Amino acid sequence: MRFLLDAEQREFARSLDGLLTSRDTPAAIRSWADGDPAPGRDLWARLGEAGVFALAVPEKSGGFGLMPIELAVAFTELGRHAAPGPLAETVAAAALLGRLGEDGAATGRLPGIAAGTTLASLCVPALGPYALDGDAADVVFVVDGPALRVAGGSGPVQPSADPARRLSRPSGGEVVAEGPAVASAAAYAVEVAALATAAQSLGLGRALLARTVEYVTRRTQFGVPVGSFQAVKHRLADTLVALEFAEPLVHGAALALAAGDGDAGREIAAAKVTAGEAAYRAARTALQLHGAVGYTDELDLSLWIRKARPLRDAWGTPAACRARVLAA
Predict the structure, then answer these.
(1) Taking the complete model, does pTM exceed 0.90, yes or no?
(2) Residue 101 DSSP SS3
């Protein structure tokens, strides 16, 4: 099995990195956290033009068909830049709708999702009662047992460790699909969301490590860069090793999902827990090695640090992922 990206996938990653670098992502994150989604929606539209969301939408609905490997590539870059919004939830909703077939009443939303004009969120109460960014989303899908409904509204925003993750409880709504197909499609959508979140964690961890390495080479103590201290080197090396181990697991899980492997769920769970823990380690390392400045909200790095733990726990906590791997 080949875990290395090919030239086209690497170029896709570079193009997304260039797109996100050219935008003022920290400003968009702060605006999103303050309840102003306009800058984030503008970024969302650019991502739609780049084909990010079309990677989870069937071809008949204006997408490319589900492409898990390319999704992992895209979400690694989205995590690297800490892009705001219900990114994993949108592609998971697209995967769910795509599995319902043409008869699903909600599948008319798919072309808008593919184009980046429809921002969707997804709530699976079995995994948690909240929908991410329901106040900013155009549509919130709720898996209610054997039924899929479109939420009629959302409650007040709940606090999160990451202020840009705006959580609320969806309420009411019209049933748009019902039956065994919903449960099957929802289970598949959860796998897609977990894979996307694992890739986001990987990218987030890479960004935290890179920023920390750059900082400790500039900051001096006793007349030398603090990065020259053995304890600092060891901490950074441990963080790098954790991320290096996570990357092939994320790519391997994407390959398993693309191949329809029966063990794909176990592979995704292993990738999710490994990447999530690696990103959380990178966040703790960044916080410690930046010293007191790492605690300040004014420092853009805080936007990355505060995202690590919520991503680690979203769409499968470490305990749940480990239990799934062991059970398999």
Answers:
(1) yes
(2) coil
Q: Which helix (H) or strand (E) holds 170?
A: strand 170-171
Cβ atoms of 247 and 5 within 8 Å: the answer is no
Banded model confidence at residue 2, pLDDT cuts 50, 70, 90:
low
Burial class (CB in 10 A: 0-12, 13-18, 19+), 205: buried
As a whole number of angstroms, the distance between CA 26 and CA 281 comes to: 22
SS3 144: strand
Give the Cα separation of 178 and 93 in Å (integer).
15
* CA atoms of 200 and 194, how far apart (whole Å): 10
Each residue of 229-262: b (16+ CB within 10 Å) or e? eeebeebbeebbebbeebbebbbbbbbbbbeeee
Residues, the chain: 328
Amino acid identity, position 11? E
Secondary structure percentages of the chain, helix, strand, coil, to 5: 65, 10, 25
Whether pLDDT at 108 is above 90: no
Beta-carbon-side half-sphere exposure of residue 8 (alpha carbons within 13 Å): 2
Largest CA distance in the chain: 70
Residues 6+ apart with CB under 8 A from 108: none
Q: Please answer whether residues 26 and 76 qualify as being in contact, where contact means their C-beta atoms are separated by less than 8 angstroms.
A: no
Q: How far is CA 315 from CA 29, 59, 81, in A?
A: 21, 26, 20
- Which single residue is written with the structure tokens 């909200």? 297
